[in-house]
């Protein structure tokens, strides 16, 4: 690996507390700079960015067009509020997002991270039903008369092992035990749907019947709870943090139909899947689905600056319209939502998508990467290689036949990723699922290097 001479950082004193990280045995990797799909540490090691800087880098690091767009905006204004005004670039971005998102999704509410985009969606859905079911409060009445909700539709249906972020509402939806059980006193309880896993199907369910089976489960929950449900919230096609769990094809479209039949909103969380990751601009595009509300984040700015958004269809937005005295406005707003620098990055990223026709290249790249990973198919501890587009999970198991997981204390996934890092690829596991989420511009040579290195790391550890 090419080395460059960069001064080593001082011994860590844990001034920086890292998320989801046991700080007592943490070996930090400090990045000095990056270019394309490669990171260079302060000690000079070059690492391939195998998880696209936590699933968000699209066009590679330091892309000249991305950097220029941010610099140009810096010369105009770096931040102003969106409460009562906004930057020209933010206005233009909202319109572009309406163009690239599915169907008639149109009205963009900006925030700064994926979790906040989900929070906004939850509150939007709840206030939507409140507004639909309440009679207008006359201006003469005190505002306190409108403060409690007038609808019974105040709950959400979320899938098992769901992950929608780390803020309180998002954690409430979450179904990953360690992420939410501790926080039970401050979270709400959703109606819990199934985990529509294609790899571990329940006894007696064949692959071809999986969509019907899981749709049936969701249908019975919707029939039972629709009067109290504001929305179904789901990650489309692939549940990322659950371990790249792939849903049976067609499930998303079935859930859309069921939501329509039961008069429940559909909120789709495309924070991880959005912006080309699965081979379409949005995962919903694979199944021709337009949710009522769609959440996006991560890749929105090409992975350059924090930004997220919640986009709603006209019928949702229009429920919030009225006279000021009716107090129908959306009671939510973020200081940095729609930040102009981030908006400039997002516009440049969308320009690059258009100029390079990037989304159309993903299916071929995905096939190429899967081809490079093919030798793993015979490995006795590789249970499944799955995902969509450039969103890939390799599940390592103790026993391939019975699909029995390793004992979690063995930290197999972590050991494989640590070895891959020594070999020049930065990846981060989800338990014993090895996640490959390279920047979408990764070349065939880079994808081959990624696959070869990860295969070697798995073979050396197992
Ligand atoms: N939703 C999904 C599907 C995600 O994968 C994530 C993050 O991984 C989030 C929401 C939360 O996004 P953020 O970390 O930007 O808050």
What is the average of the pLDDT values?
94
Q: End-to-end span in angstroms?
A: 24 Å
Please tell me the total number of domains: 2
The CATH topology of the largest domain? Aspartate Aminotransferase, domain 2
Instruction: Please identify the oligomeric state.
Output: single chain
Q: Spans with pLDDT under 50 lasting ≥5 residues?
A: 1-9, 138-146
Helix content: 25-40%
In DSSP terms (H or I, runs of 4 or more residues), the helix count works out at: 13
Q: Supply the helix-strand structural class.
A: alpha/beta
Provide the list of bound ligands, each named once: pyridoxal-5'-phosphate
What's the gyration radius in Å?
Answer: 23 Å
**CATH architecture grouping of the largest domain:** 3-Layer(aba) Sandwich
EC number: 2.6.1.62
InterPro entries: Aminotrans_3 (IPR005814), Aminotrans_3_PPA_site (IPR049704), BioA (IPR005815), PyrdxlP-dep_Trfase (IPR015424), PyrdxlP-dep_Trfase_major (IPR015421), PyrdxlP-dep_Trfase_small (IPR015422)
Protein name: Adenosylmethionine-8-amino-7-oxononanoate aminotransferase
Subunit structure: Homodimer.
Strand and helix layout:
Elements: E1 31-35, E2 38-41, E3 46-49, H1 52-55, H2 64-74, H3 88-100, E4 107-111, H4 114-133, E5 155-158, H5 168-173, H6 177-180, E6 191-192, H7 210-225, E7 229-234, E8 238-239, E9 245-246, H8 251-262, E10 265-269, E11 293-296, E12 308-312, H9 314-318, H10 340-356, H11 362-373, E13 382-388, E14 391-396, H12 412-422, E15 425-426, E16 433-436, H13 444-461
Parallel strand pairs: 3-15, 5-6, 5-7, 7-10, 10-11
Antiparallel strand pairs: 1-2, 2-3, 4-12, 8-9, 11-12, 13-14, 14-16
The structure holds pyridoxal-5'-phosphate.
Pfam family, one: Aminotran_3
Catalytic activity: (8S)-8-amino-7-oxononanoate + S-adenosyl-L-methionine = S-adenosyl-4-methylsulfanyl-2-oxobutanoate + (7R,8S)-7,8-diammoniononanoate
Subunit structure: Homodimer.
